[in-house]
Structures are given as structure tokens and as C-alpha cells.
């Protein structure tokens, strides 16, 4: 069994204080995310919209948790992605048409977008 607490603390000791860590939680269960969150980690990355949506619903009580979508985004998944509570960043805008659809669907939200 993975000792996630020790792993997290080891990583935190190795990085400078001014570096912002995003814990990639893909394929990990919500209880491990909650455990790392309790250690002070607030930013988590997922690469599948469905998995992110399920985890965000399960962990919705963690109000300052910040979700990052880090995978390839398909146009047909935009509505589902934008409905996720605490979605703060999309790291995978790889075409202008995708950017246009996000801006049309969600013009008032403040979601950070990373352009490839």
C-alpha cells in the first residue's frame, strides 16, 4: 500500500516554497485525494472529464479544493467540464474552435485557460 502522506511530505520538502504544486490525481480514489488535501494540498489535476466530474461531486465538501483539467478536451465534453464545481484551470486548449466554444458557453466565469 502506498503511504501517500510520506510521499507528499517528501515531495514538498524537495520543492521551493515559491513553486505551485498540482497533484495529478488521475486514477486515484477520492479518499486519497481527501487525505492529501488534509495535508495542505489544494490543487489537483485530472485528465478525464467523467472522472473529474465524479471526484468533484464526491469531494464537493472541500470548498477550497481547486480542480485542473489537464487532458485532451473534446468539444462534446465542454458543457460537462464547465459544470464542475471548483474547476479553476483548463490546461489543454489545443485549437481555436475549442477556445471559442468555451468562451461562448462560459463568458463570465474566471477559469484559467492554458493554450497549446
Question: Would you give an account of this structure?
Answer:
- The chain has 116 residues and is α/β, with parallel strands linked by helices.
- It is 39% helix and 18% strand.
- It has five helices and five strands; from the N terminus they run αβαβαβαβαβ.
- It has helices at residues 4-14, 30-38, 49-58, 78-82, 96-105, and strands at residues 23-24, 43-46, 66-69, 87-93, 112-115.
- Strands 1-2-3-4-5 form a five-stranded parallel beta sheet.
- The longest helix has 11 residues, at 4-14.
- The radius of gyration is 15 Å and the shape is globular.
- It starts with a helix and ends with a strand.
- The relative contact order is 0.13.
- The model has no long low-confidence stretch (mean pLDDT 93).
Which features characterize this protein?
116 residues; alpha/beta
Task: Output the number of helix runs.
Answer: 5
Secondary-structure content class:
alpha/beta
* Strand order in space, largest sheet: 1-2-3-4-5
Q: What's the average pLDDT?
A: 93
Helix content: 25-40%
- What form results from the Cα inertia axes? globular
Q: Tally the beta strands.
A: 5
Strand content: 15-25%
| Rg for CA atoms | 15 Å
Straight-line N-to-C gap? 36 Å
